[in-house]
Amino acid sequence: MTALARLHRRFATAVPEWFLALLLRLGVAAPFFMSGRTKVEGWLTLSPSTHYLFAEEYRVPLLAPETAAYLATYAEHLLPILLVLGLLTRPAALGLLLMTLVIQIFVAPGGWPTHLLWAGPLVYLIARGPGALSLDRTLHID
């Protein structure tokens, strides 16, 4: 076995799965939560610019702009908090993955490199769960 292979094996076994899952949960929650905060004034009052963007630029089929604005804004607040806590992690990650797909298909098709950066951790969390350091594991939900 080469020195590089030994180093790789040592590193791979030294990083616990719970740490990797926590890092992915925190990393993917941040951009969504920060995006949600740009859409509101105060705690959860949608800003006029949010209403404008959903009416004029973020046209999502099958949803009225007002409904889409509220759904997206509330989801960008609630789902990342759930991910950080590791509570209902798989459904929260699925919700953010669906939001990512809607953004990719209908809002910003050219943003695929960023959307892949979001999709990777979300798919991992859906497939593997939140890890041992989570409320899901503590409450025996996962």
Automatic annotation (TrEMBL):
Pfam families: DoxX. The keyword Nucleus does not apply. GO terms for cellular component: plasma membrane. It is found in: Cell membrane. It is a multi-pass membrane protein. Keywords: Cell membrane, Membrane, Transmembrane, Transmembrane helix. PANTHER family: INNER MEMBRANE PROTEIN YPHA-RELATED, OXIDOREDUCTASE CATD-RELATED. This is DoxX. It comes from Brevundimonas vancanneytii.
